[in-house]
Amino acid sequence: MCTLQKRNNIFTLTLTGPTDHRLNPTLISSIRSLLAEAKSQATPGSVLVTAAEGRFFSNGFDLAWANKNSGGSGAEAVNLLRHMVDLFKDVVADLVNFPMPTIAAVTGHAAAAGMMLAISHDYVIMKKDKAVFYMSEVDIGMTLPDYFTAVMRAKVARPEVRRDVLMRAMKVKGEEALAKGLVYEVYDSVEEVVEASVRLGEEMGKRKWDGEVYAEIRKSLYPELIGMLGLTTKELVKARL
């Protein structure tokens, strides 16, 4: 379902298998467990790269899981979807509070909560084609969780881009995502995306930044989001004065 590997200063968390990596309680728990493992092993200069096998980065919440476990009740299916929304909020909080730079290597489609997973990283590197950002909520008929909206306001600078992504459900390919400021870089192939992600991680890792300081500076950029996620900030001085 997902794995964590460490090579030098780079942790690589990979969503494994040929599936569309739908976010259900099992996958969410696995992601959080591996993030906690990487955090426990972090040293100055550590970097996280998140990637996924197959055609999808993540296709959002596992609606089939909610229906399967609802006992045929539409109301219970909705409650299970809300449960997944609540669980996934902790993944976003983990990433916003993560004590190292984070990079999403998006080599496949990232829809709804899958797009939230990607842009909750500090940097997104995306495949030029056959990889799409898509916020599907208006198409499927559900409002946005409050922290989704806070992530979009924090991470997407241009109001017209937020409007088109959220209110027109635009499917945005790599080069357009770059032009709209949704991603950091785009590349032609899966291999190039992964290599660029690792290369960026290695460049940042050489700086040997203190992870706790890095996380506090990140949080200081997004006051609305950290409030929504229930995170707090603190002042740190670790400089050699």
Automatic annotation (TrEMBL):
Record-linked SUPFAM superfamilies: ClpP/crotonase (SSF52096)
Entries under Gene3D superfamilies matching the protein: 2-enoyl-CoA Hydratase, Chain A, domain 1
GO BP field: fatty acid beta-oxidation
GO cellular component assignments: peroxisome
A GO term for molecular function: delta(3)-delta(2)-enoyl-CoA isomerase activity
Record-listed E.C. numbers: 5.3.3.8
Catalytically driven reaction(s): a (3Z)-enoyl-CoA = a 4-saturated (2E)-enoyl-CoA; a (3E)-enoyl-CoA = a 4-saturated (2E)-enoyl-CoA
Pathway(s) this gene product operates in, as recorded in its UniProt entry: Lipid metabolism; fatty acid beta-oxidation
Signal peptide region: none
Keywords, sorted A to Z: Lipid metabolism
PANTHER family, A to Z: ENOYL-COA HYDRATASE-RELATED, ENOYL-COA HYDRATASE_ISOMERASE FAMILY PROTEIN
Family assignment from sequence similarity: Belongs to the enoyl-CoA hydratase/isomerase family.
Protein name, UniProt field: Delta(3)-Delta(2)-enoyl-CoA isomerase
Organism: Artemisia annua
